[in-house]
Write a structure and sequence with these properties.
Rossmann fold, seven-stranded parallel β-sheet, binds flavin-adenine dinucleotide, 12 helices, globular
């Protein structure tokens, strides 16, 4: 059943039609009073803000304490890319298992669209006790509105306590839309998740105020508790391919897929074939490398070590590397075995993306650069000289 919490108070409405003009989705039309097209409305709040007499409200469903007990289980929304399970899903299953142990709950993966037997097995091996599967041709393109509708439908039907979603481009779109439909909170880009032993609530930690402090956010009065986590932040657990799980096929009203969007063409992004989130070794460029012409050296070093080049936002803004290779708060969180930071100062917005790196090596000409506080090994000196020396040494020894 579709949630539709937009209300128009006809005693307060002055029929000015401001709301109709404010709606980007053509969800409001004017009869005697504004009329809502429930399928088109995205609960974006634009009409609420525009109404001069506060005649429009979006009702938030407060879950009473008695109702909280109806919600149980930890769900992970599975992201499939060309049929393959995105590693962030497996990482979240690892975290979900940890949380489930604390609350004595069941871990489930939610799979929307076509899914192979192998992919289901993988989800179970990495920790899912159950899989909720909703399939329909309309879910075979990654249109976020559709996924959000079906995820919300599943959630209303089975009432999970927690839903975890990978903070990929796709996951960000789905999580925000699903949370709005379910009228619950969503904490985006969490860096840690814990269960509060006293209340059983999910404690969702994320950087706030430009990364200068860590906020812990709770969703005490609403369910499900929704959080997104970037790739590379959580650890997968060791898979057990002997595990058994239950697959529940969920049927839903196909009208949920009527999102008014027609997919004309799909184009694969061929610019970023390899993802820095998956790299074992990253050589990261900072402003201190002082020019695009030095990226070639970093690429050579990366090639010798079987890695990739990444970088700071300053390096992206200078046009030396692409945004797909940016590490940090507004870039990617990475977890390679080795991260060599070349001419990177180590501001919190950058280092928040390398908390899970096994070994950080910093090259910086300033011995007081903050990067040395978190580096396992540090080289004080000119990156333009040190990187070529490292290349020479490696070439001589490989
Ligand atoms: C909301 C917000 C989000 C942000 N998100 C991100 C993010 O996702 N990722 C990110 O990286 N930043 C991000 N930033 C920017 C961040 O605050 C820093 O400005 C940025 O990380 C600095 O990049 P840098 O270390 O390459 O450059 P700089 O801070 O300019 O540091 C350059 C370093 O190189 C050293 N150096 C200079 N010459 C040499 C040399 N020849 N050899 C060796 N070392 C040398 C210097 O001593 C210095 O330490 C964000 C900022 C904000 C406000």
């Amino acid at each position: 059943m579709k949630v539709h919490p937009l209300h128009i108070d006809t005693t307060a409405c002055i029929q000015c039609e401001a709301c109709v003009g404010a709606c980007s989705y053509n969800a409001l039309s004017m009869g005697e009073y504004p009329e809502i097209d429930a399928d088109a409305c995205q609960l974006c709040n634009a009409c609420v803000s525009e109404c001069p007499t506060e005649a429009i409200t979006i009702e938030t469903a407060n879950v009473t304490t008695a109702h909280l007990s109806q919600y149980a289980g930890i769900w992970v929304l599975c992201e499939l890319n060309n049929g393959a399970v995105n590693p962030v899903t497996l990482q979240l299953l690892g975290k979900a298992c940890e949380l489930a142990q604390q609350n004595n709950e069941i871990v489930s993966a939610v799979v929307l669209g076509a899914c192979s037997y192998d992919a289901c097995n993988e989800l179970i091996a990495y920790g899912a006790d159950k899989i909720y599967h909703a399939n329909h041709n309309g879910l075979n393109t990654m249109l976020e509105n559709r996924y959000a509708e079906v995820l919300a439908d599943l959630s209303q039907c089975y009432k999970p306590s927690v839903i975890l979603i990978g903070a990929t481009a796709f996951g960000r779109g789905v999580s925000a839309r699903a949370a709005a439909r379910l009228q619950t909170g969503l904490t985006a880009d969490c860096t840690e998740l814990r269960i509060d032993n006293a209340t059983g609530n999910l404690l969702q930690q994320r950087p706030a105020f430009g990364g200068n402090l860590l906020a812990t956010i709770e969703t005490p009065h609403h369910r499900p508790q929704m959080a997104s986590v970037r790739p590379g932040v959580m650890q997968m657990q060791t898979p057990d391919f002997n595990r058994k799980g239950l697959i529940i096929e969920h049927t839903f009203d196909a009208a949920l897929l009527n999102d008014g969007i027609t997919l004309l063409e799909e184009h694969a992004d061929t610019t970023a074939k390899q993802r820095i989130e998956d790299a074992d070794v990253l050589i990261a460029a900072g402003k201190g490398i002082q020019g695009k012409e030095h990226i070639g050296n970093l690429e050579q070093l990366a090639g010798l070590l079987g890695g990739m080049v990444a970088g700071s936002r300053a390096a992206v803004e200078a046009g030396w590397i692409s945004v797909a290779h940016q590490v940090g708060q507004t870039g990617k969180s990475v977890s390679p075995r080795v991260y060599i930071a070349c001419g990177i100062s180590g501001q919190i917005q950058h280092t928040s993306g390398i908390n899970n790196v096994e070994t950080v090596i910093a090259i910086n000409n300033d011995p007081d650069a903050p990067i040395f506080e978190m580096a396992h090994y540090g080289i004080v000196g000119n990156a333009q000289e040190i990187v070529p020396e490292l290349i020479q040494i490696l070439r001589a020894n490989v």
